TrEMBL record:
<dbReference type="InterPro" id="IPR038732">
    <property type="entry name" value="HpyO/CreE_NAD-binding"/>
</dbReference>
<protein>
    <submittedName>
        <fullName>FAD/NAD(P)-binding protein</fullName>
    </submittedName>
</protein>
<dbReference type="InterPro" id="IPR052189">
    <property type="entry name" value="L-asp_N-monooxygenase_NS-form"/>
</dbReference>
<feature type="domain" description="FAD-dependent urate hydroxylase HpyO/Asp monooxygenase CreE-like FAD/NAD(P)-binding">
    <location>
        <begin position="6"/>
        <end position="183"/>
    </location>
</feature>
<dbReference type="Pfam" id="PF13454">
    <property type="entry name" value="NAD_binding_9"/>
</dbReference>
<dbReference type="InterPro" id="IPR036188">
    <property type="entry name" value="FAD/NAD-bd_sf"/>
</dbReference>
Length: 651
């Protein structure tokens, strides 16, 4: 009788795991049933479903999006290549894919015009993801059958095998369960609940953290003053839907500068965040020089050394090597791609650079000596906290400062005079992969796992996962027209009589009050607050654990000392518990860890809700993508459990 695997989540992550199961199945099993459970469209899932505004784009260029492994991917399973988003679009419009036709309507028009550097709409991406899943299904090995269930998994009944309970009363046998649900919603935190209660009591509007496309933005009246917290991709969606989505349009002056033409239905959005600036624009050019050889200063040997050492602090011990790695890739491109902007030659600079630590006066002197223009020198502290020294006396002064910042960012990411920025991006990807390997061990201290990894994920996203350049041009146009007002860094929002009050570190004793407050961000992860019934049930039964990291405090003599930390879940006399809110999995193969700390043989989880932090489910081709390697690791661990040898020996 075939063994049964249930994958909860049929979006890009679930599809990626299914593709890897199909690729390796002939090596392990004679017969396997795989059940793909998701109430949202096959392949696309909730985030990438076609049923959303045609104004919403991806934040990666079409040539930089693939769901298929290639020869760069270092994994145990077979490599099964396939087209990127751009290659798929070309093949469809050229009639080279049997059974594939150009979609009707605006999506078809977009497909016909798509270029490699185009930022496709999410609606077009939904068609690509649908194709990927259909291709996986059409090329299944004879050992594998896939059954799709357009519904929600709501629980698990333990047994031999387990039974997955479906919304509406259906049941599926599950010898193995894989949770691949992507971003999950959660019940409000105490602070969010207080803000919602304040809004309810005073007739205000509060929009909690959620997918912007799911928010009822029609509730915001024209002319309304709005406070928005968050300046990442959720804010970009908010901006698009509140302005262009209400009939506003942008007029190009002819030099790339945009003017906003209002519809008369606009609110006025006052926006700030912790960092106080938008995510950096995506680069829109290619490297001029060959890619820097990476890893160079943070590779497998260095990670192995940290693992042997243990008690590693990411910011103190690893970040200097991460920064040096990114700097190596940045300066490699600057010297070899733009020799007119440096003094001397790369070989001389590289020899001296390699011998120096990143945070030393000698390193800075080296850079200053070889790189005459300060704008060409890499400064991570300024990138992380660009408004550190800003405290404007009035809003207009702050607007000029922020517009100048955004204009500079645009120039650096769309003008090929600054391709060193792309070099840094390549270095960031290398550093991200190595840190992910380190995070998969017990080497980092609990505090560093809980706090520094979150800082790094946020910093990486701000540098590498920003919006397309045109979105920042639109933001500037809205700012000049007075419809978007920048509040700056360190945003604090508090309930006050008749509204919400916003203050920031970037404004000197100034505040903005509004009756509408939008959390322009996703909800923070939380197993205990999750409204997903499957996750909630597994947690209640102790089959799934929320990651809580135990930090013990001692003085120089080794004696226990008291630790106070208001940002953590609990403090004891000599122990601090850091609750990350993430699903705890074994990092080598993504098996669930239960409440007793034991890895589960037959239950797995993969995605942003777990404590293994991965980039997106799809990625750039030819980059040895970490996500694809993770999908492969899960798939082969699953197949090991359903293989006849595992049944025979109870392994």
């Amino acid at each position: 009788m075939p063994r049964s695997v249930v994958i909860v989540g049929g979006g890009p992550r679930g599809t990626g795991v299914l593709e890897r199961l199909a690729a390796s199945a002939p090596e392990f099993v004679d017969a396997l049933d795989v059940h793909l459970v998701d109430p949202y469209p096959d392949g696309a899932g909730r985030i990438w479903r076609e049923d959303q505004s045609e104004l919403l784009w991806m934040n990666s260029m079409a040539a930089d999006v693939t769901m298929f492994t290639d020869d760069s991917v270092q994994c145990e399973g077979p490599i099964v290549p396939g087209p990127s988003l751009y290659e798929w679009a070309v093949a469809v419009r050229d009639g080279e894919l049997e059974g594939e036709t150009v979609p009707d309507g605006p999506v078809g028009d977009e497909l016909r015009a798509l270029g490699p550097a185009t930022f496709a709409t999410r609606r077009l991406q939904s068609h690509y993801l649908d194709f990927v899943l259909r291709r996986v299904l059409a090329t299944l090995p004879p050992q594998v059958r896939v059954h799709r269930h357009r519904t929600r998994a709501v629980g698990l009944r333990r047994g031999a095998p387990d039974v997955v309970l479906l919304d509406g009363g259906g049941e599926l046998p599950a010898d193995v369960l894989v949770l691949a649900s992507g971003h999950l919603d959660a019940a409000p935190t105490e602070d969010e609940a207080a803000l919602a209660a304040h809004a309810e009591a005073h007739g205000l509007r509060y929009f909690p953290p959620e997918q912007t496309t799911d928010s009822d933005l029609d509730r915001i009246p024209a002319g309304e003053t709005v406070i928005a917290r968050g300046m990442g991709l959720a804010f970009v969606d908010l901006m698009v839907l509140l302005f262009e989505g209400r009939g506003g349009r942008f007029h190009d002056r002819g030099d790339g500068t945009l003017d906003y033409v209002p519809s008369g239905r606009e609110p006025v959005v006052h926006v700030g965040s912790g960092r106080g600036v938008p995510y950096h624009a995506k680069t829109e050019y290619a490297l001029r020089a060959p890619r820097a050889p990476l890893p160079r200063f943070l590779g497998p040997d260095e990670i192995a050394g940290f693992v042997r050492r243990g008690s590693v602090d990411l910011r103190r011990d690893v970040w200097p090597l991460m920064a040096k790695e990114v700097g190596w890739a940045y300066y490699h491109e600057l010297f070899l791609g733009h020799p007119d902007r440096v003094r001397g030659v790369w070989d001389d600079f590289a020899l001296r650079y390699a011998a120096l630590d990143w945070y030393t006066p000698a390193m800075w002197e080296l850079v200053v000596g070889f790189v005459p223009d300060p704008r060409d020198r890499l400064d991570f502290e300024r990138m992380d906290r660009p408004l550190e020294d800003v405290c404007a006396p009035d809003l207009e002064t702050l607007q000029e400062r922020l517009r100048s910042y955004v204009l500079d960012d645009l120039e650096r990411h769309v003008d090929d005079r600054y391709t060193a920025e792309l070099g840094a991006f390549v270095g960031l990807l290398s550093a991200f992969a190595q840190v992910a390997e380190l995070a998969g061990t017990t080497a980092l201290t609990p505090r560093s796992r809980a706090q520094d990894l979150a800082w790094w994920q946020n910093f990486f996203s701000s540098l590498a996962s920003g919006p397309p350049g045109p979105r920042l041009r639109q933001l500037l146009a809205l700012s000049r027209a007075g419809y978007v007002v920048f509040l700056g860094a360190g945003l604090q929002v508090t309930p006050v009589e008749g509204g919400f009050r916003a203050t920031t570190a970037s404004l000197d004793r100034l505040a903005v009050t509004a009756q509408t407050f939008v959390e322009a961000r996703l909800s923070s992860p939380s197993v205990s607050r999750s409204d997903d019934p499957m996750l909630h049930g597994l947690h209640a039964e102790g089959l799934l654990d929320e990651e809580t990291l135990r930090e013990e405090h001692t003085d120089a003599s080794g004696a226990a000392v008291h630790a106070a930390d208001a940002a953590v879940a609990h403090s004891g006399a000599s122990v601090t518990l850091h609750n990350t809110g993430l699903v705890r999995v074994r990092t080598s193969d993504f098996r669930l860890i239960d409440a007793e700390g034991r890895p589960d043989r037959c239950r797995f989880a993969i995605g942003p809700h777990t404590n293994v932090r991965l980039p997106g489910a799809f990625t750039r081709p030819n980059t040895n993508a970490l996500s694809f390697r993770a999908n492969d690791a899960v798939a082969r661990a699953v197949l090991t459990e359903v293989a006849p040898a595992a049944l025979a020996y109870g392994a």
